[in-house]
């Protein structure tokens, strides 16, 4: 396999790892509590799997349990929180959640 270093292109898995690290850094900078960080991580998982606010079942609860290190009930709650984030126009690519200025 040819190296992509210096070509401006990253292999998909490497690019995903880089994006996840950047998102975690943004969450750290925003001083988010652990629960919100987990919800954002699950939202990123949903979008990466091709889902959106109305279609979150692309990621199984067992995958959420493993990624968040929680049990099934909490995983379900975190999935609902991720769905709410996506419905509120949360952009996983920028870790930006629009705020209502009213």
Textual characterization of the structure:
- The chain has 102 residues and is an all-alpha fold.
- Helices cover 56% and strands 0% of the residues.
- It contains four helices and no strands.
- α2 packs across α4 and α3 crosses α4.
- The longest helix is centred in the first third of the chain and has 18 residues.
Key words describing this protein structure:
single chain; disordered N terminus; 56% helix; globular; mainly alpha
Short characterization:
The protein has 102 residues and is an all-alpha fold.
How many strand segments?
A: 0
Question: Whole-number radius of gyration?
Answer: 15 Å
Percentage of β-strand residues: under 5%
Shape by Cα distribution: globular
Question: SSE string, helix = H, strand = E?
Answer: HHHH
CA-to-CA gap between the ends?
Answer: 53 Å
Overall mean pLDDT: 79
Task: Give a topology summary.
Blueprint: H1 12-29, H2 34-48, H3 61-68, H4 72-87
Helix pairs in contact: 2-4, 3-4
């Amino acid at each position: 396999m040819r190296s992509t270093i210096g070509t401006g292109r990253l292999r998909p898995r490497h690019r995903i790892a880089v994006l996840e690290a950047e998102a975690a850094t943004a969450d750290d900078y925003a001083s988010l509590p652990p629960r919100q960080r987990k919800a954002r991580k699950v939202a990123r998982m949903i979008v990466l799997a091709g889902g959106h606010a109305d279609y979150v079942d692309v990621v199984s609860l067992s995958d959420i349990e493993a990624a968040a290190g929680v049990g099934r009930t909490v995983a379900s709650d975190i999935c609902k929180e991720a769905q709410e984030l996506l419905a509120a126009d949360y952009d996983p690519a920028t870790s930006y959640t629009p705020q209502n200025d009213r």
